[in-house]
Each structure stands twice: as structure tokens, then as C-alpha cells.
Amino acid sequence: MKNKEIILKGIPASPGIVSGKAFLFGREQYTIPRRAIRDDQIQNEIKRFKDALIQTKNEILEIKKRISEEMGVEQAQIFSAHLLVIDDSMLIEEVISKLKKEKLSIEYVFQDVLKRYIKVFSDMDDEYLKERISDINDVGRRILRNLIGAKEDILSNLKEKVMVVAYDLSPSDTATMHKKNVKGFATDIGGRTSHTAIMAKSLEIPAVVGLETLTKKVETGDTIIIDGTHGTVVINPSPKTLKKYEIDRERLEAFEKHLLELKNLPCVTLDGRKIELSANIEVPEDVPSVIAHGAEGIGLYRTEYFYMNRKDLPTEDEQYKAYSTVAKKVKPNPVIIRTLDLGGDKFLSQLDVPQQMNPFLGWRAIRFCLARPDIFKTQLRAILRSSIHGKLKMMYPMISGLDELRQANAILEEAKKELKKESIQFNEDMEVGAMIEVPSAALTSDILAKEVAFFSIGTNDLIQYSLAVDRVNEKIAYLYEPAHPAVLRLIKTIIENGHNAGIWIGMCGEMAGDIVMTIILLGLGLDEFSTSPIATPEIKRIIRSVTMAQAKEIAQEAINLPTGKEIEKFARKKIKEIVPDLAIEVE
Ligand code: PEP
Ligand code: MG
Predict the structure, then answer these.
(1) Of 121, 148, 175, at which residue does a domain stop?
(2) Does the beta carbon of 508 sit less than 6 angstroms from any atom of ligand 1?
(3) Residue 586 included in any domain
(4) pLDDT of the residue at 188
(5) What is 509-573 written as a DSSP string?
(6) Which residue of 129, 398, 487, 563 sits 20 to 30 Å from the alpha carbon of 70, by its own alpha carbon?
(7) Mean pLDDT, residues 62-88 taken together
């Protein structure tokens, strides 16, 4: 069905929300025929090759100059790598000697050598060298284009504003884009720290990468929404979805306006109750955004990304370097490292995890770590070693009961003992907490609270497990209700049990950044909110607009309502009364 709304989740590469007509940008594949040449044509083919190299070099110098003027010298460095490819004498000599030997057209020979180069680089283990493949590809295509006299890529000559959709975009494709004609872009492949993503951020073009199957689902002319802030693309959005994103876009713009004013203000209620406001990160590169949005610490550092997109496992030293860098950057504010949460919808190619019937209910997170103490202990040692560099804390994901918590702590003790024996320093008093994201943990939180320093409520999982709604299945997404009374009751229980045992309670699931729920959570007694960096300013604004007495009253009234829909409607009404200029819909 062509006009059905499709939502795809990818990797947020550059923030902002835009909608418009898709433009499918296909990388033209040049078809080079195998054509034999005579001896007396060899010199001419060499000349053609050298001319194409000069022409390509001039083009790249031109782009480099423009990017350097428009975006700064640093961004232009990508093209220095391209120039190195052109000046690679080994490549040039190999092409010329192959031309003389095989007596085939220069285009054909060049393409052949290029393919071999790419193969050699792809087989290498070195990540840096692997990244060079895109440079070689990019330059190689330019040289080929000049050899066969094809026209310049179309992205620089677009006649109207479009949303570019492509399997991949090279840095030079991205560089030829102009804000005036490209509203946003989305690609099947690519990572958050790829050159293309970095360029998109500098150009301030909203972008989502790593969407895997996008180009198979979109046609030129389809309406699409690119949400580069959350990493989502919607194809053929319904009028309702378009409206929702329009509200999100307004909210985003409002964030930006309030950002500077709010950044240095404390996160306190009107009657002076201090609330910890933190942000969630996936990679150390996210830290500047946390600081820019005024979050005070990191409430969830998801460490899975360390283990993804690679063939080997991260070493203790490698992890130590990343964790201590983050700890130092965020110091004196806290950083909570969440130990490996593999499984569910996060798979690691290098670990031989068998396919499971119910991956979210299966061999996941702490269950996996307890079964693989070798992998777990390496991470624990790295966290412990980093603990002297800042206010580091750690927590275990998916704890379902006391046995699991004790087993995890026993491995932590082993790691501590080893480090002591090796005379390696660590902070003996580092706080260790548990994520509460399984209903059994929520219901026994009074027991668990006695053996941890804090709880962090993982609502993304807590909601899916308590309502029996797979968090990644879009067919039942309508049942995924954060405001469901069952969810609120569990949260209330967790907070009360935690406070009775004298520990603090945070929340790091998406619900912590849901402005509809902020006042209720505050009224239930939550001590810390950890949200995506972009959500922190508005959460701070709401917290600064209420008193604790007001919040408690609202929470009490909400929790007594019988359905999630009624609770949500009530919460929306209340929040609109308290912060009227919030971009929020009230029926
Ligand atoms: C959660 O479940 O709420 C959470 C924060 O963890 P993740 O989303 O990584 O499962
Ligand atoms: Mg979780």
C-alpha cells in the first residue's frame, strides 16, 4: 500500500525537525565497458588520466576553500584526506603499469584498481583505515566522472527545497548541499560520528542516518518528516502525525530560545526543593550537548555502543579511557555508568548470542553479564579505575530480584579485590545502584533498596514489561501508555520504598523527558530526572514553575483516575495551566 504511514527509526545525526517532499538521490553507477586499446593509444590514455587527476584536484581544492570559508578550517580537513588519495603515487603508478600491461581503456583500468584498493581497506581490522574507504570511494567517483566527461552531481543544482533521501552520502555530496535547497537528509547507512553526520551538524541541516531500508520505502515526491533530534523518519505522515511533529518543531524552537536563559539557573521548585537534572548519553561525544543544554550531570551513560559495530570486544584500557574522559569532563557533577545492556533490540555481532523467541524476556542485560563474568568484569574494572577521575557512579540494568543484585555485587567485589592486589587505585565508596525496570524489582524495591545506594527507574522497559507491550512493535504502540495507572502505581511504590530505606530515586527512561508527566513525577517524589539533552531545558522550566505542594496534589489526583487516557488528559490540562506557553495539546 503506497500511502500508508511508515515510521522508521535511525540514528539522530543532526538535530531539527523538517517535513517536505522526498528527493531520492541515487548515486549514479557509471558503467564502464571493457574496451581494448592499441599500443599507440597508451600515451593518450595516460594523458587523459593525468588531466582527470588535475581536474579532480582543482575541484576538491575549490570545495575545500568554500567549506573552509563557510564552515571553518576543521571541517575542510576532510578534503585534505581526499587530496592525499589523488596524490597517492602508488595508486597512480599501479594504474599506469596495469594500463601498459593489459591495454584496456584507462577508465576500465582505473575502476579495477580502485575496486582492489577498496577491497584491501575493507579487509583491514583498523577502524581508522576502514573509514578511509569512503574517502577513496568519493575521490574515485570524481576521477571516473571526469574521465568519462559526466556532469557534476545534481545536489548543488536543485531547483526547489527538498528532503534528500539516499543510500549513503559522501562528505563531498554533503558539502555540495546548500541550506537553501536541502531541508534535511536521511540515509540508509552511516553512524552518528561519520563525517557526513558531522558535516550535517555544521551545516545545521536536520539529518537521520542508519535507517537501513529507507530508500526501499520512499519514492521521489512522497511527503516525509525528518526528525533529526530523535532519529526518526516518517513516510507519508497522516495529518495527525504532521500536526504532532509541527508541535514538536515549535517546542524545539522554543527550547532553543529559552536555552540560554535557563542554562545557568538552578533546577529548583518555586518553594526551593532542589531536583537533580541530568541527561542520557550513548557516546563520550554527546557530553558537549549535555553541558550546552544545562544538565548538571549524566544520569545514564549507555555503554552498549562501545560493543557495537566492531569485530572484537572493547578492552579494559579502551573503556577506562572513555569512562574517565567523561568523568573528567562532567566533574564535579555526577556520571552514572550503566553496565552492559546487550540483548532485546541491541545485538552485537561479535558475541555469539543465539536467536531467541522473546529477546526482551530472554538472555539480556545483567543476565548476559552474569553468564559472561569475563566480559562483565573487564567492564567493572574499567569503571572502578575511572572512579577516581570524577563523581562516577554505576548501576546494573534489568535487575529482577535480590539474587541477581547480589551476584552482580559479588563480581564487583572480585574486581575490587583484583585491583587492590594489583595496587590500582579506585574509589571504594563509589555509589552502586540498580535500574528498576522489571515489575518484580519494582514490587520488591523495599528489599532491593537495602543493598544499593540508589534506584534509577527505566520506564522504557518498565512500561513494556508491566503492560505487556513490546516497545519496538509499532502495531501495539497505542497500548504503550506511560500514564497508565499501573505504571504510576509501580513508580509510586518504587519511590516510597526507596525513600523509606533512605536512598535517592532517579528516572532515566524516556518518561523523565515527557513534559506531560513532569509534575506528576515530581509530586510522586522523584529526586532526579535524566532525559535526552534536548529535553532538559523544558523539564527545568516546568520544575521551576511549581511548588512541591502543588505537584503532590496533582500527582495524588492523577493516580486516583481510572485510565491512562484520563490521567494524560488531566496532566495536560494542569501543565497548560501552570506553564501556559508550553507547546502542548489540550483537547
Ligand atoms: C529504560 O529501559 O527505560 C532505559 C533507560 O534503558 P534502555 O532504554 O537502554 O533499555
Ligand atoms: Mg532498559
Answers:
(1) 148
(2) yes
(3) no
(4) 87
(5) SGGGG-TTTHHHHHHHT--EEEE-GGGHHHHHHHHTT--HHHHHHHHHHHHTSSSHHHHHHHHHH
(6) 129
(7) 77
- What residues make up the domain containing 365? 261-578
Asked, for residue 253, whether it belongs to a domain, the answer is: no
Q: Which residue has the cell 501543565?
A: 575
Which of 341, 400, 480, 517 should be mutated for ligand 1, with most atoms under 8 A from CB?
A: 341
Give the atom of ligand 1 at the shortest distance from the alpha carbon of 365.
10
pLDDT tens-digit map of 226-266: 999 888 999 999 999 999 999 888 877 776 776 667 888 99
Indicate whether 179 belongs to any domain: yes
- Spacing, Cα 460 to ligand 2 middle (Å): 6
Residues serving a catalytic function are: 195, 508
Cα end-to-end span (Å), the chain: 31
Residue 278 sits in the same domain as residue 418: yes
Q: From the alpha carbon of 344, which atom of ligand 1 is closest?
A: 10
Instruction: Give the domain-ending residue among 183, 213, 248.
Output: 248
Smallest CA separation from ligand 1 atom 1, residue: 458
**pLDDT digit string, tens, across residues 114-132:** 888 888 877 777 666 666 7
Q: Which of 223, 222, 187 is nearest to 205 (CA)?
A: 187
Asked whether residue 519 falls in the same domain as residue 456, the answer is yes
Cβ(300) to ligand 1 under 6 A? Answer: yes
* Ligand 1 atom nearest residue 511's Cα: 3
- What CA dihedral angle connects 247, 539, 306 and 353, to 10 degrees? -70
Residue 579: all three cell numbers together: 506553564
Whether 188 lines ligand 1, by a CB cut-off of 6 Å, is no
